[in-house]
Design a protein that fits this description.
By secondary structure, this protein is of the alpha+beta class. It is built from 29 helices and 24 strands. Strand 4 (about 185-190) and strand 5 (about 195-205) form a beta hairpin. Residues about 145-155 have low confidence and may be disordered.
């Protein structure tokens, strides 16, 4: 019989089990009746005939078992019986069951929490058809920070003219789509009286077709929409149901940033775009960039014309590209795209004034990589950390398995007589091992269920920390079939890992005991040695995790000790969006002045200022500058601020003066630079009175301020130039002010509501965000280091706790087994201190062995953490000291109770029991 035929028989017999049992009973009754009738025909009385038929037929139950075995059901029946027996046995030992299940729940729960995050951020593919055919593109240059997909020098943004050239070069070999990053837009929903916010992306007409997504209602964006510049929109299924009442909205008007757009379609359920950690509510045509005033996430090597649409500017890179190309067409299609990109790069380089920037641009090449996992800002930031945490939690799970294995070994030692009786009655090794594994599976199932719930709760909390916000999480963080399958796999693997060895040990001990009563103590001795080996392994693994946690914890402390260069005490900030609120560019200086006056009148406010980019707020701007006395153009970071800005945020003035009203009155263009610029380009002379500028050095430097980490605590201070908000340049639109800083005199929580009310009264149409203490910005900036440090410390503490419990269990078991020996020693004059040293000596030997092995493993593993450390060497002596002290403390506590218990043994009771 072929295997699939046998499988079909087993499945059919299992599903229709009751009918099978009735048929077996009917058939056996038929055969017995036939035999009885034949014997009756020979002259036997009915009772004698029935008895003789039963004797001739044999055991009915045995015949049924043979029939079930032929159908493949015997193993299933025995397995179900073993599981029921295991459940009854564990229910009879509630203390043991609680300890084992709780231990497994902690190990499996920690594993599930980290895997859920790893799957969401790194592993989970986009839910798109034929996602393997999708490709994304980047310019691979010789410089630049890591971007989205990771890798130094990767630039994922392209200009609209470059996108159109690449789309033309691809031709019929595939389809190419462009999309922007998500942006928050002001909107008025159909039938709503008050404005609200929504998250939108601008996309090309082939966006949905390239991704293989068919809209659920209405239609997708088309090339006719792109050619005509039609104001149309496709909304997500979640936005439609959550915000629009799940009514038929196709054809309704949705006002976005003052532009009336017609809803033409609803995306299918589950589709939220290509950015896995930033779900979009609405998709709008790229051609609406100018009327929608979209000006986010752009970069350029040359000046951007603020009064010209980005669709016509090849110098503005603001689009991410995704293509769908079949495997056969991929090589020629990629070659054609790379040729078109070289031509575009050469053409763009002609308009770049900075020679170094031009050389860098010409050196760029088009890179291609698979896109099945989508874009993710979290992936580049957290992937290394998540893999490190996964390794740690795997170690914790191993420690958990070793701990439960020791618990089962103790049970096995106590059931040697029971196993010996079973062996004597003919039980096979396979059946006894299956019974042991059934108990392990039952424990693992209970621990896995509890661990899954614990992991789901923990992963949601960690995900909110990763995203830096509370409330609903993106759909990628939801537990799905992949997570459930992983939970089942982990539970099964742990059951085998901690169950197979105790089961085999129990069977072997039982067989030895059945063969000879003197072998029982020898078998128990082997079990004890096996338990000690596992404890040493537990301690070694715990040392590795604790050492890594010490390194990462010291890294977090070093980050928190970094001086940002400004004062965060009682400093709060709020972001606002004047462009999307309908303010004209010329109104910006007046808006800034009114905001400062309104906030300054609030009791408890010491100072306030407005700026283009807030500190540690994910905002930055840079441009090419000419500096007096410097031959080549240089790249400087830049910010536009109001008078009093440096006093408000607490950046000390080193030389010169701050901006004031005279800069607004005399029309003189001025700038304030930081120490990095002064040290590098004015090392021997004062920078005050020197000049710099974008097209020519015509801006006078009037002040020098201290270096500050304006973008991130991870980055060293950059060359930064500050300009008055009343002094726009071609590098930035005059109206691009986005941040208000407020310095409080007392606690920040007292006046935040009053500050918000003052802003709303002064500028009721201005869209503002939440008032956030600057300390919160710094906390979010260190979210990766904080999460990794806290989780690694938690895992280290958990591993150390489990290892100490394992040590305690082995020592307690050893004391129980050596009660008579200890009683004899005490009867012969041994003192309590000597007995205690006997037990503690065993603990010291196991601890020393675990420490030696663990430190060797820590030395190897620490090198893989070097990229995540700051100011800490991979072989940091302080971390070694922490490990030794922590291990000494927990093992001392774990060994004291068994050692003390050994000293309380009554010699008379011990000798009498002997």
């Amino acid at each position: 019989m072929r295997w699939w035929t046998r499988l079909a028989v087993v499945v059919r017999s299992t599903v229709f089990r009751r009918r099978l049992e009735r048929e077996l009973d009917d058939e056996l009754k038929f055969h017995l009746e036939q035999e009885r009738a034949a014997l009756s025909a020979r002259g036997l009385r009915p009772e004698e005939a029935r008895a003789a038929a039963l004797r001739a037929f044999g055991s009915v139950a045995a015949v049924k078992d043979d029939c079930r075995s032929s159908l493949g059901l015997r193993l299933l029946d025995e397995t179900l019986h073993d599981l029921r027996y295991a459940a009854r046995t564990l229910a009879g030992k509630p203390a043991f069951t609680f300890v084992a299940v709780s231990t497994l729940a902690l190990g499996i729960g920690a594993t599930m929490a980290i895997f859920t995050l790893l799957d969401a951020v790194v592993l989970k593919p986009l839910p798109l058809p034929a996602a393997g055919e999708l490709l994304t593109f980047y310019e691979n240059g010789p410089e630049g920070p890591a971007d989205v997909t990771g890798g130094s020098g990767r630039f994922l943004r392209f200009s609209y003219p470059r996108f159109k050239r690449l789309q033309s070069a691809l031709g019929s070999s595939g389809s190419l789509a462009a999309v922007t990053r998500s942006a928050r837009f002001n909107a008025r929903l159909p039938g709503a009286a008050e404005p609200t916010f929504l998250t939108a992306q601008l996309v090309s007409d082939q966006y949905f077709a390239t991704l293989g997504v068919a809209v659920g209602r209405g239609r997708a964006l088309t090339s006719d929409d792109a050619r005509s510049g039609a104001a149309v929109a496709v909304v997500s299924d979640g936005f439609w149901k959550r915000r629009l009442g799940a009514s038929d909205v196709v054809g309704e008007l949705l006002v976005v940033n003052g532009v009336s757009t017609t809803i033409v379609g609803v995306a299918p359920p589950g589709f939220v775009g290509m950015w896995t950690d930033s779900e979009a509510d609405v998709w709008l045509p790229l051609e609406l960039q100018e009327p929608l005033r979209y000006q986010n996430n752009s970069s350029s090597y040359a000046n951007i014309d603020p009064d010209k649409s980005w669709l016509a500017q090849d110098t503005v890179a603001w689009l991410n590209l995704v293509a769908r190309v079949g495997p056969r067409d991929r090589p020629p299609a990629v070659a054609a795209l790379q040729r078109a990109n070289r031509d575009g790069v050469a053409e763009l380089a002609q308009v770049i004034q900075n020679p170094k920037s031009r050389e860098t641009m010409v050196a760029h090449t088009l890179g291609v990589e698979p896109f099945s996992h989508g874009f993710s800002g979290l992936r580049a930031r957290f992937s290394d950390a998540l893999f490190a945490l996964t390794a740690m939690v795997a170690v914790v799970l191993l420690v958990t398995c070793a701990n439960v294995a020791n618990l089962l070994l103790v049970r096995a030692a106590g059931r040697t007589r029971d196993v010996a009786i079973r062996v004597s009655l003919g039980a096979t090794t396979a059946r006894l091992v299956r019974q042991g594994l059934a108990e392990s599976l039952t424990l693992a199932a209970a621990g896995g269920a509890a661990g899954l719930a614990l992991g789901e709760w923990a992963s949601r909390g960690v995900a909110q920390e990763v995203l830096g916000r509370s409330g609903p999480l993106p759909s990628i963080f939801a537990a799905d079939a992949r997570v459930l399958a992983f939970a089942a796999g982990v539970s099964l693997a742990t059951a085998v890992a901690f169950g197979i060895a105790p089961a085999l040990r129990a069977v072997r001990a039982g067989r030895n005991a059945a063969a000879s009563g003197t072998n029982q103590q020898r078998a128990i001795g082997r079990i004890t040695r096996s338990m000690r080996t596992r404890v040493v392994a537990q301690l070694a693994l715990a040392v590795v995790v604790v050492f890594a946690a010490a390194l990462l914890g010291r890294t977090l402390i070093n980050f928190m000790r970094i001086d940002p260069g400004f004062s965060i005490d009682r400093l709060v900030s709020v972001s606002f969006d004047p462009i999307d609120s309908g303010y004209a560019a010329g109104e910006m200086p007046g808006l800034a002045r009114r905001l400062i006056e309104a906030v300054g009148s609030v009791p408890g406010v010491v100072a306030a200022s407005v700026s283009r980019c807030g500190l540690i707020a994910g905002c930055s701007s840079s441009g090419g500058y000419l500096i007096e006395g410097v031959d080549d153009p240089v790249t400087l970071y830049q910010n536009w601020v109001t008078p009093g800005y440096f006093a408000t945020v607490g950046i000390p003035l080193v030389a010169g003066r701050e901006f004031d009203d005279r800069d607004r009155q005399n029309g003189q263009q001025v700038a304030i630079i930081n120490e990095s610029i002064a040290r590098r380009w004015f090392p021997a002379v004062s920078a005050i009175g020197r000049r710099l500028g974008s097209s020519r050095p015509d801006v006078e430097i009037v002040g020098v301020v201290r270096d500050a980490r304006t973008q991130s605590l991870h980055d060293a201070p950059v060359p930064m130039a500050y300009f008055p908000v009343t002094q726009p340049t071609g590098l930035i639109r005059q109206g691009a002010l986005t941040n208000l800083d407020v310095r409080m005199s007392g606690g920040t929580g007292v006046s935040l509501g009053a500050v918000r009310d003052a802003i709303r009264r002064a500028e009721p149409r201005l869209l503002i965000g939440d008032l956030v203490p600057k300390a919160t910005h710094l906390r979010r900036d260190l979210s990766r280091e904080r999460i990794v440090a806290y989780l690694s410390l938690s895992f280290g503490a958990l591993a150390l706790l489990l290892a100490s419990l394992g040590l305690y269990g082995v020592l307690s078991y050893g004391v129980a087994q050596r009660t008579q020996e200890i009683g004899v020693r005490m009867a012969l004059g041994a003192r309590r201190g000597e007995v205690m040293r006997l037990v503690i000596g065993e603990s010291v030997r196991m601890t020393a062995a675990g420490l030696a092995l663990g430190l060797a493993g820590a030395i190897v593993c620490s090198r893989h953490l070097s990229g995540m450390l700051l100011g800490v060497a991979p072989l940091d002596p302080a971390a070694f000291a922490v490990v030794v002290l922590a291990l000494a403390a927990v093992t001392t506590l774990a060994s004291y109770i068994p050692a003390y218990r050994a000293t309380t043994v009554d010699p008379l009771v011990a000798l009498r029991s002997e």
